[in-house]
Amino acid sequence: MQVVLLAGGLGSRLAEETVRVPKPMVEIGGKPIILHVMDIYSHWGHDDFVVACGFKAMMMKAFFQGLHLLNNDFTVALGTGNMTLAPCSKTDRRVSVVDTGLTTQTGGRLKRLRSWLRDEPFMITYSDGVGNIDIDALLAFHKSHGRIATVTAVQPPARFGNLQIDGDKVTAFTEKVQTQETWINGGYFVFEPGIFDYLSGDAEPLEMAPLTRLAEDGELFAYKHTGFWHPMDTVRDRDHLDRLALEPTPPWLEFANTPQRLAASPERAVAHA
After folding, report:
1. Who contacts 162 (Cβ-Cβ below 8 Å, separation ≥6)?
2. Number of domains forming the structure of the chain
C-alpha cells in the first residue's frame, strides 16, 4: 500500500531549525524525523512512499537522491570520479519526491498527488509525528467500517503539571498528568480514492473543510491509539524526541508494548476530529 508523507510546511514554530532545513529533515537521534516515520511503516511491510514536499523542496529532493550513497560505504577514484559501492544496508523502500508547491495547504498537496497514487486505498500522515501505531490493526479497522476515511485519534502528551487547590492552598502537585480523556488528530490516516471528491484546491487545509464534511457525511471514523505518540512542534519537542531516539529501541518502534487492540466496533469521528 502506498504511504503519503506530508512534508511541505514551513515549520515556523521550529524556526531555529527550519531556517536551515525543511521541518521533516530536522534530526532526532542523528537522522531526519521523516526517516523515523518511514521506519514505523516499514516495520509493518509498507515501503512505497510518496513525499509531498514544498518548502525547501530542492533540499528534500537532493537528500533522497543521495540517500542510497549515504547509507552505504564506497570507494571513489578522485581523478575520474568512478565509484564502487560496498553495500552495508538493505532496504526495499521506494520513494517518490513531489514538489507540491511552496504555499500549498495540506488538502491541496494531497490533491496534487492524485496522478502519483494508484486507484486504491492509501495511507497518509504528517512527517513530524511519531507513534507506535499498529498499522495492521489500523488497516483492519479501516476495512471493517467500509467508509472513505480513518483518522488515528491520539491523546496529546501532557505538557504541564497538575495542581490540586483547596482555597488558596495547593494540596497536591503532580507532574504532567492527563486528567481527562481528550482525543486529537494524530495523523496516520487511511483514505479510499473517494477522498479526492472532498478536496478543492491549493488553499484548503485537509484538516478543515474536507475532514469536517467527511464527518458530517458519516464517512470519517476514528481508530483510537492509546500507545506512544508525540509530535515535533517546538524546540522542546525536538529535544525530547532526540533523547528518546537514542534509546536502544525508541518508543515509537516498541510495538511489542502496544496496548491490546480494541475489539469494539468502529466509532465514527465527530466533525472536528
Report:
1. 172, 173, 174, 175, 176, 177, 179
2. 1
